[in-house]
What does this fold into?
Amino acid sequence: MGKLDLPAEVSASAYNLPDTTGHFGPYGGTFVAETLIAALDELRDTYESLKDEPAFRAEFEYELKHYVGRPSPIFHARRLSEAAGGAQIYLKREDLNHTGAHKINNVIGQAMVAKHMGKPRVIAETGAGQHGVATATIAARLGMECVVYMGSEDVKRQAANVYRMKLLGATVVPVECGSKTLKDALNEAMRDWVTNVANTFYIIGTVAGPHPYPMMVRDFQSVIGEECKWQMPEMIGRQPDAVIACVGGGSNAMGIFYPYIPYPDVRLIGVEAAGHGISTGMHSASLCAGRPGVLHGNRTYLLQDENGQIIETHSVSAGLDYPGVGPEHAWLKDCGRAEYVAIDDEEALAAFHKTCRMEGIIPALESSHAVAYAMKMAAGMSKDAVLLVNLSGRGDKDMHTVAEKSGIKF
Amino acid sequence: MSRITQTLSALDAAGRKALIPFVTAGDPDLSVTVPLMHTLVEAGADIIELGVPFSDPMADGPTIQRASERALLKKVSLRQVIAAVAEFRTRNTTTPVVLMGYANPIEAMGVDAFADAASSAGADGVLVVDYPPEESREFARVVRAAGLDVIFLLAPTSTDARIRAVGEIGSGYIYYVSLKGVTGAGHIDIDAVSKRIPLIRDMVGLPVGVGFGVRDGASAKALASVADAVVIGSRIIEEIENSPADEILPRVKTLLSGIRAAMDSVEVAA
It folds into this structure.
C-alpha cells in the first residue's frame, strides 16, 4: 500500500512535502475515524489560509521575539569539543527559550490558529510535561481554558511539572488506560477532541498525528533551523557539516532539519533513544528498530509486536519515550536524506554530566542523546569540521531522574 | 449477493430492522467468544460485529478499550480472531460476521493474507475504524476481491462529497455514528438522525445502521424507527464486564433479547 513508486533519491531543491493529502511518500496521511475528518479538514483549510498571511506571520514573529526570547543563540562548546578530540561542537540553545525548551515555538503557533478559529478551549497530551507546560503557559497568556492529558505513570514521575501546569491554571487529567504513558495520553486527548470539537482545539506537541499536524508543527518549529542558517555563517563563515538532534516524536529535529534539507553538504542526523540497548528490546528507537504501520492518525515507523500491537517503550528521558515517530522522519530515512542512530541511557547520562561540568549548561536528558552522539562522531573528525547540535531543552525537569540514578535522594 | 446483503434484504422484505451487537473477541477470554456469538444469535442478532483487540483504540471509549485490554492480556491475535470465526461457522452458516478493528494489526498481518484468511474462515465484512475512504481504496479493492464487504463509518459531520466517496467503495451497509464522541458516550438526538439517514441511504444506495449511544430497548426502538439496523456495543461489554464468568452468556442473552423485543415492537409503515 502507499506510493512506493516515488524516486528513492529525493532532489533537494524539489522537496515539497507533504503532498496535498498529507503524505510524505508512503508515510503520513489521515488515518482517523470519520468523526474526526471534518475537524481536520477545517484545521487544514484554516492553517493553509493563515500560514503565509502577513499579519499572522508578523504576530507569530512578535511572540517568538518578545515572549519566547528568540532568536536563541548558538554557542561554541569548546571544552566539550576538546574532550571529544575532533570536530567542533556548536549548541543551538533552545534551552534558553521561555519554558525551557523548543516546545513553545509550536504551541504559540497553534494557539494563534485556535484563537483565529474562535475556539476558547485548548487541550494537549504530554509525556514529561514540557509540552503540557508550554500549552498551559500560552493558554494563560491568551486567556484560554486548558486541559492537559498525562499518563498516570508520568503524573507520578513528573510531579513538579504537574504542579507547574496547575499554577498556570490548567487542569491535568491523569490517564489510567493502557500503559498509562504518553501514547495513552494522546489517545485520550483525541477522544476529548472528537467529543468537544465545537469549542476545542487540540494542540499536538510533536510532528506526528494526522495531517495537517506533522506539517504544521514542522513549519512552526522550523524557526530553529531558519535562524541557524544565518547564525552559522555569521559565526564561522559557512554552514555546519552536520546537524544533530534527538528524535522522540521528532519536532525539535524536524525544526532544525527542515530548512537544511536543500543543503546537500549538510548531513542531517537524528538520534533516537536506545534505552537499555536496542538488543534488549527496552528502547524507543522506532526508526532504527521498528517497522512501518499505522498509529495516531499517520503511517510511520512503529515499535510493535508481530501481531501489530504497539509495544511499551523505554528511555531514561520521558520526552523520547514514544513508540512512533513523525512521518516526515520516516520518509527522510527511507529516501536517505537523513540518517538515524541511537544512543542508550548510559551514554546519554554521561553526556548530560559532561555538558554540566564542562560547559556550565544543564541539558535536558532528551537533548543529552544528541550531545552524546555528537561527541562520539566528533572524535573521528578533523578539528575543522563543525557539528551543530540542537540543545532542545534544559535539564531542570530531570534533576529528580538524574539524582535517583546517582543514588541521591532529595 | 453477499451474506450481509442477503440478510439485510430479507429483513427489509419482512419489514424488520437488523440488530447488530458488537463484542470484542477474546474478552474476557477466547474460550468465551464462540459460545457468546451463538448466544447473540439466539437472542436475536442478525449480524455480529466482532471486535479485533488493539492496544490503542483511539476512537473507542473506556468500555471498549478495557475489553481490548482484557483480550490483549490473553495475547489474542488477529489470526486467533479469524480462527474463532471459522469455529463459529461450523455451527452457523447464516449469520454474517463483520470484523471490526484498527488498521495496524491488519497491516502487520499483510492485507492480502488477511483478506484470504478472513474470507476462508467465513467472515463477511470488514470495518477498519482508522481507514477513511481516502486512505483505503487499495485495501477496499483487495478485500472486496476476496468476497468481503467493506463497511465504512459516516458521521453527522460527513459532507455530501465524502458520503458519495464512501458509496463508491463501500458495500454491505453503512455504519452511521449517531453522535460526536467515542463509543459508549451520551445520548442520541433521534430527530437529527432521522433527517440524515434517508439522505445517506439515497446517496450511497446501502442500508444504514446506527450506533454509538444505544443503551437500552428504548434507544434501540427509537433508532429502529428511522434506521435499517441498530448497532449496540458498549452496553453489552459492560454486561460482560460485570458478570461472573459462568453468568456472561445468560446475562447477555437477557439483555439482547430485551432489546430485540423492544425493536420488534416498532410499527413499520407498509
